[in-house]
Predict the structure.
Amino acid sequence: MLASHATQIGHASLLIIDFIVLVSALYFLAKSQASPASQNRMVFLAIASFAIIGRWVMEPLPNIQPVTILVLVGGIILGARRGIALALIITLVSNILLGSGLWTVFQAIGWSLVAVVGATFADKFTEAEGKINLLPVLIVGFASGIVFNWIVSFSVLPNLADGGAFIDYLIIGLPYDLMHAFGNFTMALWLVPIINHLLYSNSLNTSETSHEGTTDSVVNNTESSILA
């Protein structure tokens, strides 16, 4: 993807695009299953926050950012609907600082598709104990870097003369596509072990809380029986 932000549109069109992305995000959130609500909400907010801030911080680096890998992981953990909502919110909020335009629509589509891939093949991305398997994330993350850039490149079509010019545009942008792909590869190597550690720690805390609750219930029932 090379200079995809060249397609400029009016302020009214920008507002319409942002409104559609926001409404779509709220729709998929409303349609997603509510259980277990608190845990999923925390995971959703954590991934969204890290992706948005990470994209802002890494903006000077060409086509290198954590969003693609985090959206993929979001789809794996949260499912397709929450994953799509995650992708839409990250796109909308991060572009407040980085700039919005016709490319926002295609970014939202590209990252939503990544989330759907993660959700659809969640069993392939996870191990028996629930941890995320690094290898498939590396492979899909690398490929997603190239495919995502090609999807976003459709935003420049109004500025090009014909299909041949679009093919030339994709060829010229291949070095940037590879930067995104290798960036995703590196992000996966860094983020997946951290996410697995956090998920494992959270599962331990949940298990301990559940065990304590069961113990308290047994004690209370025993005391009630004795008093009776």
Summary: The domain at 8-198 is CATH 1.10.1760 (Arp2/3 complex 21 kDa subunit ARPC3).
